[in-house]
Design goal:
With 252 residues, this protein is an alpha/beta fold. It has two domains: 119 residues, Rossmann fold, CATH 3.40.50; 108 residues, LytTr DNA-binding domain (OB fold (Dihydrolipoamide Acetyltransferase, E2P)). 26% of the residues lie in helices and 29% in strands. The protein is built from six helices and 15 strands. The strands form four sheets. A five-stranded parallel beta sheet has the order 2-1-3-4-5, covered by helices on one side.
């Protein structure tokens, strides 16, 4: 089954999607981490801190996804900081000493990097966090999903997805701006079905009900001139069910 679609523009740039801070009393380490963050295109650095006592208010007022945390600091150790601070972020420990590694994992840190830090090892820690967060995604409680494409991660909002097609051992995800092709072992199509905006039309197609502008037995039209009409047949019961679900979403 093949699809005829119109795509007005393509965008394959990696979106920065994880906010981070650095808490380390060593200026050279801060500079190195800052360089790695800017190089990665995965992160956005929000602030650098030398003093742990300055961090608590900041993370309460800002959405922070990753904290790069030094262990050995004069005013408060990194482990003391973790024990005394309320935070909702992944923590990557930065230390020149391996001896704290075991204790640090009691705080469920994401990774432990030993100085001197190499960029590939830094990047591995970031990918580890993304993989972990991806595994924890509950699609009915979030509006996006992370996909690993050509070795890099893309953040895709559900609202940007028009339809999804399963083709042999690959999955094609058509968004408002791009078409992404991924292999099935990297992505489970069933996860989308947990979100009520998506409907599995048949064995090959999943559509975003919010994007549908017209639907009949043999054709589905979407906003921005996207459409499906090749070898598609929707029986009357399914067609009525889809129309009712579209109304439910519109009334939410």
């Amino acid at each position: 089954m093949f699809l005829r679609i119109k795509v007005h523009k393509s965008c394959y740039q990696l979106t920065k999607f994880m906010n981070c801070i650095i808490l380390d009393d060593d200026i050279l380490t801060q500079k190195q981490l800052t360089s790695f963050i800017q190089k990665s295109d995965l992160l956005e650095l929000k602030a650098c801190f030398f003093n742990p006592k300055d961090v608590a208010n900041f993370i309460e007022q800002n959405q922070i996804d990753i904290i790069f945390l030094d262990i050995e600091m004069p005013l408060m150790s990194g482990l003391e900081f973790l024990g005394q601070t309320n935070y909702n972020a992944s923590v990557i420990i930065i230390s020149g000493n391996k001896k704290y590694a075991l204790n640090s994992y009691e705080y469920e840190v994401a990774d432990y990097l030993v100085k001197p830090i190499e960029y590939p090892r830094f990047l591995k820690a970031i990918y580890k966090i993304i993989e972990r967060e991806h595994d924890k995604i509950k699609l009915d409680k979030t509006d996006r999903i992370f996909l690993k494409i050509a070795g890099k991660y893309e953040r895709i909002k559900f609202s940007d997805i028009v339809f999804i097609q399963e083709i042999n051992d690959c999955i094609s995800i058509t968004t408002k701006n791009s078409i992404y092709i991924i292999t099935c072992n990297k992505f489970k199509i069933e996860k989308f079905l947990q979100n009520k905006m998506f409907y599995k039309l048949d064995d090959e197609h999943t559509i975003n009900l919010k994007e549908v502008t017209f639907i009949s037995h043999t054709k589905v039209e979407f906003f921005n001139d996207f459409f499906l009409d090749d070898d598609i047949y929707i029986d009357s019961t399914t067609l009525e069910n889809i129309k009712n679900k579209i109304k439910e979403i519109e009334n939410d």
